[in-house]
Design a protein that fits this description.
Strands 1, 4, 5, 6, 9, 10, 11, 12, 13 and 14 form a 10-stranded mixed sheet that branches. The protein has a 4-stranded mixed sheet with strand order 3-2-7-8. The longest helix has 15 residues, at 261-275. It is built from 10 helices and 14 strands. The radius of gyration is 19 Å and the shape is globular. By secondary structure, it is α/β, with parallel strands linked by helices. The structure holds adenosine-5'-diphosphate (ADP). Adenosine-5'-diphosphate binds at residues 193, 229-232, 234-235, 250, 253, 255, 258, 261-262, 265, 289, 292-293, 296.
Length: 316
């Protein structure tokens, strides 16, 4: 099975979101009654992989979950979404990554929240697992990484892909201030949002003009192309061979929940890079904007990500 070639391989995180809605956030030492509880599948790596799979490419996830109920459940979630799971390892040394979220409003995405994230098994993914998955990495069309696992593991995976001429997408999220410059050199597409661009460059990024400047700075650090996503304003794309960046606007939609919009965008970008490798990056970004715009019109993270069947045929 591991000799199979995949279009998109993601090396990244899985998180189980445990969400409680309550009239207010509890104080230290206090227990209060909430009115709703739900479990959601999250983690940037898994989100991006599942969005790419839903658009119709062969995907594999390289990650680690706990040998526990949440880990078993997550593996089933990958299977339900046609994501290959031979490289999803389970460990008894740590629990499946989890985010305990308390939201103090009837409308979760408008309320205040208190969140505890325990990365758990995600941090146990390392060189040993990457070596076991080397054939899949080598044969992939596109490899995608983020920063919710050990940054060493992400960098190593990107390097392995880069050395094998596999196109790479790196999403430096959550951003860290002194990101190793090695990440830029192994990124074919370095894709981040405004706040990540701000943290990485030290520039303030509040509008399209700022994003053009920040993209120039990120490109100088050695990547082949930069995309900065700008929420309802779409994104800015800058390629090494061009002097100026292009603003790719998004269509205006009524957003109900923007959680995971960036992951939907990156999953879609990975799909286009694998499925239409010769398409101009600006056109891939225009289409990824459209996919992500669909995701913000429904509630939840993976629950809001569209399938191929939900989208206009001209996106494919
Ligand atoms: P993140 O989720 O990482 O904060 P953004 O907010 O920049 O990322 O959103 C990623 C992409 O999702 C945008 O580039 C855009 O294509 C789409 N998007 C986000 N919010 C909206 C919105 N309100 N209307 C239309 N598209 C949106």
């Amino acid at each position: 099975m591991s000799d199979r070639a995949f279009d998109v391989v993601v090396v990244g995180s899985c998180m189980t979101d445990l969400v409680s809605q309550a009239p207010r956030l509890p104080k230290a030492g206090e227990t209060i009654h909430g009115h709703k509880f739900f479990i959601g599948f999250g983690g940037k790596g898994a989100n991006q992989c599942i969005q790419a799979a839903r658009l119709g490419v062969k995907t594999a996830m390289i990650c680690k979950v706990g040998k526990d109920f949440f880990g078993d459940n997550y593996i089933q979630n990958f299977k339900d979404n046609d994501v290959h799971t031979d490289f999803v390892w389970q460990t008894s040394d740590a629990a499946t990554g989890a985010a305990s979220i308390t939201v103090n409003d009837a409308v979760p995405w408008e309320g205040e929240n208190a969140i505890v994230i325990v990365a758990g098994a995600n941090m146990r993914l390392g060189e040993e697992e990457l070596q076991k998955a080397l054939t899949a990495i080598r044969k992939a069309k596109v490899l995608v990484c983020q920063l919710e696992i050990s940054s060493q593991t992400s960098l190593r995976a990107l390097q392995m892909a880069h050395d094998n001429k596999v196109r790479t997408i790196f999403n430096p999220a959550p951003a860290i201030p002194d990101l190793d410059f090695g990440f830029y050199r192994v990124s074919d597409v370095f894709c981040c949002n405004e706040s990540e661009a701000e943290l990485l460059t030290g520039y303030s990024v509040n509008n399209v003009e700022d994003a053009h400047q920040a993209a120039q700075e990120l490109l100088r650090r050695g990547c082949t192309a930069v995309i900065i996503t700008l929420g309802p304003q779409g994104c800015v794309v800058l390629k090494a061979q061009d002097k100026t960046s292009t603003h790719v606007p998004s269509t205006a939609v009524k957003a109900v929940d923007t959680t995971g919009a960036g992951d939907s965008f990156i999953g879609a970008l990975a799909f286009y890079l694998a499925h239409h490798p010769d398409m101009p990056l600006e056109e891939m970004a225009r289409r990824a904007n459209q996919v992500a715009a669909v995701s913000v019109q429904a509630v939840g993270t993976q629950t809001s990500f569209p399938f191929k069947r939900d989208l206009p045929a001209d996106l494919f």
